[in-house]
Design brief:
The complex is a heterodimer of chains A (80) and B (233). Chain A is of the alpha+beta class and 80 residues long. Chain A has helices spanning 16-28, 51-66; strands at residues 2-9, 40-45, 72-78. Chain A is elongated and about 45 Å long. Chain B has a single domain (3-104, 145-163, 190-232), classed as Rossmann fold (3-Layer(aba) Sandwich). Classes of the chains: A alpha+beta (80), B alpha/beta (233).
Chain lengths: 80, 233
């Protein structure tokens, strides 16, 4: 099964990298961008075909390593 | 003093740290590899040095914090063992949950490598007994992710419990945004755990202990630890 974990910064956490990207887009003339927040995407292949078990496993992976829940939120999806 | 320096792949300041521990205490520290599961018997100080463990992949310190040796470090700290993390070591202690908060990318997005001034907030800790409260010391920093942050409640607790030990300051000890090099909240450069036995700090006191290097401001931290452990023994 293919799965995806998306990690994003929590609201209110300063994101200097996102700010820099935002500035670069502006200087490229890509207008209309109000703000940018940078995050991470993990594409993961899961053994087996039990969707509920896969979600539980991904949640464990995110809690224990992929995300630092002090500053980050995450979303878990089993894609197919 | 029976010190241990923990070595992870990608760490590069372990020899500076070992040299300093040897110079100040007279004893060679044990170098313990990340894949080990035990600290040597009788260990009384664990030091996690600076560097770029695992190339800073995922998040600084994230992968090192989950290495086998960290369970032993966690157990050592839980028993009150003195634990010091410098630079990447501070990041690792935060990721390991031994200290609260997180070190984010520097506010100016630049890697900072220069001497900074630190205000020593307290002298009544095992790590700062070699200094006076309010004293200003000059030590180097070298980091890209030293911008300390935690949620408002945690910051209030750290401040309320006097757990902020070092702050970035001006040469005369003023807390001023112009001297807060990485944008850390409340100019925090170093904090201790609830019990006060775990210190994490971004600057490198181990690099200022020899007169031949120009300054010895960092010596007080290590001399204080030697004194503390000598009394405990």
């Amino acid at each position: 099964m293919k799965a995806r974990v998306t990690v994003t910064l929590k609201t209110g956490i300063l994101d200097p990298q996102g700010k820099a990207i935002e500035g670069a887009l502006r200087s490229l003339g890509v207008n209309g961008v109000a703000s940018v927040r940078q995050g991470k995407v993990f594409d993961i292949e899961i053994e087996g075909s039990d969707k509920a078990a896969a979600e539980a496993l991904l949640k464990q992976a995110a809690d224990r390593l992929l995300a630092n829940t002090v500053i980050e939120n995450y979303k878990v999806e089993v894609v197919a | 003093m029976k010190a241990v320096v923990v070595v992870f792949p990608g760490i590069n300041r372990e020899r500076d740290m070992a040299r300093t521990l040897k110079i100040v205490s007279g004893h060679e520290p044990a170098m313990v590899w990340h894949a080990d599961t035990q600290l040597p018997a009788g260990t009384d100080l664990v030091v996690i040095p600076g560097g770029f463990s695992y190339g800073d992949y995922l998040r600084c310190g994230a992968i090192a914090a989950r290495s086998p040796i960290m369970d032993a470090v966690r157990a050592f700290a839980a028993k009150g063992g003195l634990t010091l993390g410098v630079c990447n070591g501070f990041q690792i202690l935060c990721e390991a949950g031994l200290l609260p908060g997180v070190l984010m990318r520097n506010a100016q997005l630049r890697f900072i490598c220069r001497d900074v001034y630190l205000k020593v907030e307290r002298s009544d800790t095992p790590f700062t007994r070699g200094y006076n409260a309010g004293q200003v010391i000059r030590v180097p920093v070298a980091h890209g992710e030293g911008n300390y942050i935690a949620d408002a409640e945690t910051i209030a607790r750290l401040e309320g419990e006097g757990r902020v030990i070092f702050r970035y300051a001006s040469p005369d000890g003023m807390i001023d945004p112009n001297w807060n090099h990485n944008g850390a909240i409340n100019a925090i450069a170093g904090i201790v755990s609830e019990r006060g036995n775990v210190l994490g700090m971004m600057p490198h006191p181990e690099n200022h202990v020899e007169a031949s290097v120009g300054r010895t401001d960092g010596r007080g931290l290590f001399a204080g630890l030697v004194d503390q452990l000598g009394k405990a023994a």
